[in-house]
């Protein structure tokens, strides 16, 4: 089965500002049609710059971007009309009502009036009862919903969410993720940047990691977790020990400061975990344990170690 053509193709994209700061360095990236793609990276890594260039808000220093086949520079209007952007900052006309600001966004892209469609978006985002309220009278969470409604008003095929749940309460976060899944099921491709790694772990199909303006990895989420996920076996000892026996030096072991717990880190990919041999070795050394538990590294552990490697 051939994979569908990418909906976004970024080639050799670089951005150097007049100050000499290089925000992006020759970035190549393909986003697949209909996926949820999470872009992870520390502050200042280049996430927002990359999104801003793809959305046509910032001019690149070099390279090209195709959005659904349209060059974002040469064919700006056609490319931009396929894209919805939910920015980090809450920028909306404070004195407009919810209904008029969302309707206006649709008109900006030359779409014919469609009150039924606007009504559906507002209902999906729990904004219907606020449709006649001025934006300045809304809570931060509600303003965030209005930004999403505005981004969806012209029926884009690609939706960018830049740190969408920063400073948002848990209930709204859950609502937003349900909506993102519905959009994806309806054929919209979603690209999100996030600081909340559990968000990417829960939502994304694929994950890209950006650090210092370079994409250091793009991987299917499940594959990333499988390849880089380390498992740990924790053994609670019956009696504390002063040091690990020399006979066990071949294992990746650490002893707790109190000497009452041994942690064995092993690769989930290895043909043999070595656990049986380890337990045998402990028995021979006269070390008894009263309990054991296993844990697997989260996406956060993987991300931190990846960025550290590049530091």
TrEMBL record:
Chain segments annotated as coiled-coil in the UniProt record: none
GO function term, MF aspect, one: ATP binding
Superkingdom assignment: Bacteria
PROSITE patterns documented for this protein: ABC_TRANSPORTER_1 (PS00211), ABC_TRANSPORTER_2 (PS50893)
Keywords: ATP-binding, Nucleotide-binding, Transport
Domain ABC transporter: 8-237
Similarity field: Belongs to the ABC transporter superfamily.
Record protein name field: ABC transporter ATP-binding protein
Taxonomic path: Bacteria, Pseudomonadati, Pseudomonadota, Alphaproteobacteria, Hyphomicrobiales
């Amino acid at each position: 089965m051939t994979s569908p053509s990418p909906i976004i193709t970024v080639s050799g994209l670089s951005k150097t500002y007049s100050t000499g700061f290089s925000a992006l360095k020759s970035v190549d990236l393909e986003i697949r049609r209909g996926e949820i793609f999470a872009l992870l990276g520390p502050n200042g890594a280049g996430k927002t710059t990359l999104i801003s260039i793809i959305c046509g808000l910032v001019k690149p220093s070099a390279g090209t971007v195709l959005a659904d086949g349209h060059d974002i520079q040469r064919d700006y209007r056609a490319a931009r009309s396929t894209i919805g952007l939910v920015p980090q900052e809450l920028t909306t006309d404070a004195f407009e009502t919810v209904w008029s600001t969302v309707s206006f966004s649709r008109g900006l892209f030359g779409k014919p009036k469609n009150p039924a469609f606007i009504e559906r978006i507002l209902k999906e985002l729990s904004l219907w009862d606020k449709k006649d309220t001025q934006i300045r009278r809304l809570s931060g969470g509600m303003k965030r919903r209005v930004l999403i409604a505005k981004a969806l008003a012209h029926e884009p095929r690609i939706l960018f969410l830049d740190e969408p749940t920063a400073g948002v309460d848990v209930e709204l976060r859950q609502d937003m993720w349900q909506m993102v899944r519905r959009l994806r099921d309806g054929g919209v491709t979603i690209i999100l940047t996030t600081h909340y790694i559990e968000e990417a772990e829960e939502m994304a199909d694929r994950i890209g990691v950006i650090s210092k303006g370079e994409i250091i990895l793009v991987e299917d989420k499940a594959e990333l977790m499988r390849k880089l996920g380390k498992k740990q076996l924790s053994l609670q000892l019956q009696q504390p020990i002063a040091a690990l026996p020399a006979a066990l030096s071949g294992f990746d072991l650490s002893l707790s400061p109190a000497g009452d717990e041994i942690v064995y880190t092993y690769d989930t990919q290895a043909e043999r975990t070595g656990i049986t041999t380890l337990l045998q070795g402990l028995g021979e050394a006269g070390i008894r344990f009263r309990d054991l538990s296993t844990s697997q590294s989260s996406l956060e552990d993987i991300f931190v170690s990846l960025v550290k490697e590049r530091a």
